[in-house]
Amino acid sequence: MEVHKQEEGKFIPPRKSAAIDAILKIYPDHPLAKKYLEDFKEYGERFTEFVNSRKPEQEIVKPELKPIDPEHLYEVFVDNYKFVNIREFDESHNDFESRKLARTLALYFIGNRNFYKSPLLCKNPDGTFKSMPDLNKGIMIIGSYGIGKTSIIKTFHEVFKYARNNELHVKNKLGEFELLMWYEIYFGFSTTNDVVSEFEGIKRNEHSDEDYIWDQFWKKHSKGFRYYDDVMTEKVASNFGKVELFKLIFEKRYSNKAKTIISLNYEGETVDSTLEAFANRYGERNYDRLFEMYNIIELKGESLRK
User: Fold this and answer.
1) What does the pLDDT read at residue 211?
2) What is the mean predicted confidence (pLDDT) over 36-44?
3) Are 227 and 187 in contact (CB under 8 A)?
4) Looking at the domain 70-299, which fold is it?
C-alpha cells in the first residue's frame, strides 16, 4: 500500500509518552488523558477510512471451490508443526491421541461430516454423546495438563493466519491445488491470562460511552471465531472492581452466536467433575449453555511433561 508524502502524517498514531501512560493509569479523567484517547480514536477512524478507500482496481474473482481434502490438510499441519513448536510432531503420543486430535480438528475446520465419527467426542456411560456433535458449535477440549492441546491448536492457528496473506496451497477432494486463503478459515488465539492482562490494562473513562480502546476489547472478545487456552486457570480480573471476566465473555459470545474453542485441564478426575467446576466458576447459566455452544472432546492421555 502506497501513502503519498503529504498523507503520511495523518497515519502516525498519537505519541504515548511515559507521562501520558502514567496519567492514563492514575487519573484517566485528566484532560491530557482524555485528549490522548480522543486523538487515538480519531487516528483509528482516519486509518480505517483510508484503508477502506484503497480498493483494488480490479476485483479478484474467487474460483468455484471444492471441499478441501482432509488428509492433505493434516499433512500441511504436520509439516508446519515443527516450525511453530520447534520440534517434530509425534503422532504416537498417548496411544496416537495427538494424531486423533489433529485429524479431528482438521475435519472440524473444513466442515467435513466425518468429524462426527471422531473417537474423541465425549460420551456418557450409556453410549450417548455428552454434547450432541454439531459442526456449527464450537469445541471444548478437556484433558490433563501437558498433553499437547495448546501446541496442536496453535499450529492450526498459525497455518490459517499465514494463509490469509500468503500463498499456501492445499489439495481439494479432486487432488487439485487451491489457495487456502480462498476458504477463509481463521480463528483468533488467546490465553485466558493474556486476556485478563489486556482487560486490566484498559483504563476506562467511566464518564464516556465512546472509549475506543474499551469498545475494541469487547468487540474482539465477544464476536468472531476464537480459541481461549487454559480456561479456569486465569486469575480474577481487576478493573474498576473485581470481575470474573470469562463469565462475561462467555455470556456475550453466546448472545452473539460466536463460535468458540476452549481448552480445560481436568478438575478432579472426570469430565463431569470438570464441568461442575466450570459451573461453579462461571455460573449455572454458562453451564447450561455450554451444551449448545460446544462439542465436547475428552483426551485421556497422560502429560508429556512427566
Assistant:
1) 67
2) 79
3) yes
4) Rossmann fold (3.40.50)
C-alpha cell, 88:
517434530
Distances (CA, A) of 278 to 38, 88, 231, 295: 39, 33, 9, 15
Kindly state the average pLDDT of the residues 178-195: 97
Task: Indicate the pTM of the whole model.
Answer: 0.78
Domain ranges of the chain: 5-53, 70-299
Question: For strand 226-229 and strand 188-191, is the pairing parallel, antiparallel, or unpaired?
Answer: parallel
DSSP-derived 3-state class of residue 139: strand
- Give the pLDDT of residue 8: 47
Give pLDDT tens digits for 107-131.
Answer: 999 999 999 999 999 999 999 999 9
Q: How many CA atoms lie within 13 A of 4 on its CB side?
A: 4
Grid cell for residue 227: 480459541
Q: Which residues pair with 227 in a beta bridge?
A: 189, 261
Neighbours of 57 (CB within 10 A): 5
Q: Residue 53 is which amino acid?
A: S
